[in-house]
């Protein structure tokens, strides 16, 4: 599973939040978040850190995003 897919699954399964709501929390458009989650747009370090803070991910949860890389 890619980082993008893991972020999607985390939002849906753990946060149980809509893409629209999370996009608002991240201060990005819904289309931008969709592109991040689908892999159509590159995830920068800045957005990854912002996502980690917004999702309130533990360091281990954040690290798990990259286990298959």
From TrEMBL:
<dbReference type="Pfam" id="PF01381">
    <property type="entry name" value="HTH_3"/>
</dbReference>
<feature type="domain" description="HTH cro/C1-type">
    <location>
        <begin position="13"/>
        <end position="62"/>
    </location>
</feature>
<dbReference type="GO" id="GO:0003677">
    <property type="term" value="F:DNA binding"/>
</dbReference>
<dbReference type="InterPro" id="IPR001387">
    <property type="entry name" value="Cro/C1-type_HTH"/>
</dbReference>
<dbReference type="InterPro" id="IPR010982">
    <property type="entry name" value="Lambda_DNA-bd_dom_sf"/>
</dbReference>
<protein>
    <submittedName>
        <fullName>Helix-turn-helix transcriptional regulator</fullName>
    </submittedName>
</protein>
């Amino acid at each position: 599973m890619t980082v993008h897919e893991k972020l999607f699954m985390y939002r849906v399964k753990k946060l149980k939040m809509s893409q629209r709501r999370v996009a608002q929390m991240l201060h990005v458009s819904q289309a931008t978040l969709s592109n991040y989650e689908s892999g159509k747009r590159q995830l920068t370090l800045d957005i990854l850190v912002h996502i980690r803070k917004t999702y309130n991910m533990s360091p281990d949860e954040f690290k798990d995003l990259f286990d298959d890389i």
